[in-house]
Write a structure and sequence with these properties.
Helix content: 40-55%
Strand order of the largest sheet: 2-3-4-5-6-8-11-15
Shape: globular
CATH superfamily: Glycosidases
Distance between the termini: 5 Å
Radius of gyration: 21 Å
Active site: 364 (nucleophile)
InterPro entries: GH, Glyco_hydro_1, Glyco_hydro_1_AS
Protein name: 6-phospho-beta-glucosidase
Structural class: alpha/beta
Number of domains: 1
Strand content: 15-25%
CATH architecture: Alpha-Beta Barrel
Oligomer: single chain
Bound molecules: 6-O-phosphono-beta-D-galactopyranose
CATH topology: TIM Barrel
Family: Belongs to the glycosyl hydrolase 1 family.
C-alpha cells in the first residue's frame, strides 16, 4: 500500500454537543450563549435555524453510534454540554444528563469506538455568561468544578479528555470581531478572556491528574500557519505577530506552560496585558498537556501593513499586519476557503522541530460545501471532492509521519452533517448526509471511502 499508516492509528471524526444534541431547553438542560443569542436575534446569521435544529443526537445516539461502527471509526470525539450536566453552571448535577452521557459512552465502548471527550465547545452556559463569562474568575473555578465532575462520573471509561475546543475562537468571535456572543470589541477584555481560559484549562488538567485514572488530557487548538507574503523582513515580522496572537497565545502555554516572551512584551508595550495574580504562573506550568488535538482548515497569508495605524483607533491585532490574498491559491470551489494540504505537514514539522514532537493528532480537518444537497443523485451524495480533500491532507500527514512526527490519528470534521454557529446547515461537512425534516441519515461516498481507509489502515 502506498500510504500505509502506523498500527493503531486513530481513524475517526469529530462533532460537538451543541451542534448535534438538539433538545436544547429540555431534559433539564439550560440555555447556552447560543440558545440565548438565537432566541434574541434568530435571523442574524442564517434563517431561523438555531441550535435546537440538529441531528438530535440526544435521541438518535444509538443509531448514530452504530453508524460510527459501520464507518470503521476506532475513535470519535464529541463533547459534554456543561449546561446540560450542571444547568446552573455550578451546583446541582442533572441526573438525566448523567444517564444520557453514561449510555453514550458505554455504547461507544461496546461498539469498539474509543470516546474522545471534550468539555467546552464554545457553549458557555448562559448562567455563567450572566456573571461575566470568562472575564470572571469565579467562572474559571466553576468550570474547573464542572470538569472534575466529568472526570469523577466518566473518567473510569473515558481515557482521552480535552479541556477546550479552539479556545481562541470565542476570544476572536466574542471579544474582537463580533461573531460570537457577547459581541464585545475590546482587545484587553479579549486578552483577559484568553488568559482566564488557559487558567481554567490548567485547573482542569491539575484536577484530572489528581484523580489518577490512567488516561490522558489535552486541548484542541486550531492552528493556522501564518505564511508571510515574502521573505522581506517586514512581511516576516507581520506573519510572526499573527502567529504569536492566534497560534502561540494558546500553543505555548499548552505545550511549554508559559506565554511567549515576545507576546508578553508586545502587550505590555501597548498596555493590553490581563491582570495576573500570584500563583497563576505556577498554575499555567501545570497545564502542559499529554495530548494535543490540532484543527486545521486553512492557513493565514500575511503581509506587512501598507498604511499607518491611526493611534487613536482601538488596539487590534490588525495594527501589525494585513491579510493577503495569494494569487493562484487553490480554493474550495464550494465555499470561499483556501485549500492548502501542505499546511498539515508544516504544523506537524513545527511541532516536531520546535516543541519536542508532542503526542498529537489531527482533531479536525474537513471541507464545507455550500448547499451540498443539490449534488444528491438517486438519494446519495457522491462527494469525490471530499475524498480528494481528505486524501490530499492525509498524504502530507503521511509524509510528516515518515519524518518522525508524533501524530497519532486523523479525525474528519464531521460525522453527520451538523448545525454550525453562523451558517446553520448552509455548509455541509459530514461523511453522512442528514435530511433535517425526516432525520434520515445516508452515508456519502466519502463515508464509504473512509471506512475502507480505516479498515486497511491506509490507501493507495
Ligand atoms: C471549527 C469548529 C467546529 C466546526 C468547524 C467548521 O472551528 O470547531 O465546531 O463548526 O470549525 O466551521 P464552520 O461550522 O464555521 O463552517
Amino acid at each position: 500500500m502506498k500510504y500505509a499508516f502506523p498500527k493503531e492509528f486513530w481513524w475517526g471524526s469529530a462533532s460537538s454537543a451543541p451542534q448535534t444534541e438538539g433538545e436544547t431547553l429540555s431534559h433539564g438542560k439550560s440555555a447556552t450563549v447560543w440558545d440565548h443569542w438565537y432566541s434574541q436575534q434568530p435571523t442574524r446569521f442564517h434563517n431561523d435555524v438555531g441550535p435546537q435544529d440538529t441531528s438530535t443526537f440526544y435521541k438518535n445516539w444509538r443509531e448514530d453510534i452504530a453508524l460510527l461502527k459501520q464507518l470503521n471509526h476506532n475513535t470519535f470525539r464529541t463533547s459534554i454540554s456543561w449546561a446540560r450536566l450542571i444547568p446552573n453552571g455550578r451546583g446541582e448535577v442533572n441526573q438525566e444528563a448523567v444517564t444520557f452521557y453514561n449510555q453514550v459512552i458505554d455504547e461507544m465502548l461496546v461498539q469498539g469506538v474509543q470516546p474522545f471527550i471534550n468539555l467546552f465547545h464554545f457553549d458557555m452556559p448562559m448562567a455563567m455568561q450572566e456573571i461575566g463569562g470568562w472575564e470572571n474568575r469565579d467562572v474559571v473555578q466553576a468550570y474547573a468544578k464542572y470538569a472534575d465532575t466529568c472526570f469523577e462520573l466518566f473518567g473510569d471509561r473515558v481515557k482521552h479528555w480535552f479541556t477546550f475546543n479552539e479556545p481562541v475562537v470565542p476570544v476572536e468571535g466574542g471579544y474582537l470581531y463580533d461573531f460570537h456572543y457577547p459581541n464585545v470589541v475590546d482587545f484587553k477584555r479579549a486578552a483577559t478572556v484568553a488568559y482566564h481560559t488557559m487558567l481554567a484549562h490548567s485547573l482542569a488538567v491539575k484536577a484530572y491528574r489528581a484523580r489518577n485514572t490512567g488516561g490522558e488530557i489535552g486541548i484542541i487548538l486550531n492552528l493556522t500557519p501564518s505564511y508571510p507574503r515574502s521573505q522581506n523582513p517586514a512581511d516576516v515580522k507581520a506573519a510572526n505577530i499573527a502567529d504569536l496572537m492566534f497560534n502561540r497565545s494558546f500553543l505555548d502555554p499548552a505545550l511549554r506552560g508559559e506565554y511567549p516572551q515576545e507576546l508578553v512584551e508586545l502587550l505590555k508595550k501597548y498596555d493590553q496585558l490581563p491582570v495576573c495574580q500570584q500563583g497563576d504562573k505556577e498554575l499555567l506550568q501545570q497545564g502542559v498537556v499529554d495530548l494535543l488535538g490540532i484543527n486545521y482548515y486553512q492557513p493565514r497569508r500575511i503581509q506587512c501593513r501598507d498604511s499607518m495605524v491611526n493611534p487613536e483607533s482601538p488596539f487590534m491585532p490588525e495594527w501589525f499586519f494585513d491579510n493577503y490574498v495569494m494569487p493562484g491559491r487553490k480554493m474550495n470551489p464550494h465555499r470561499g476557503w483556501e485549500i492548502y494540504e501542505q499546511g498539515i505537514y508544516d504544523i506537524l514539522t513545527n511541532l516536531r522541530e520546535n516543541y519536542g514532537n508532542p503526542r498529537c493528532f489531527i482533531s479536525e480537518n474537513g471541507m464545507g460545501v455550500e448547499h451540498e444537497l443539490r449534488f444528491e443523485k438517486d438519494g446519495r451524495i457522491d462527494d469525490d471532492y471530499r475524498i480528494e480533500f481528505v486524501s490530499g491532507h492525509l498524504k502530507w500527514l503521511h509524509r510528516a509521519l515518515q519524518e518522525g512526527s508524533g501524530c497519532l490519528g486523523y479525525h474528519m470534521w464531521t460525522f453527520i452533517d451538523c448545525w454550525s454557529w453562523m451558517n446553520a446547515y448552509k455548509n455541509r461537512y459530514g461523511f453522512i448526509q442528514l435530511d433535517l425534516e425526516t432525520q434520515k441519515r445516508t452515508v456519502k461516498k466519502s463515508g464509504e471511502w473512509f471506512a475502507a481507509v480505516s479498515k486497511n489502515n491506509g490507501f493507495d
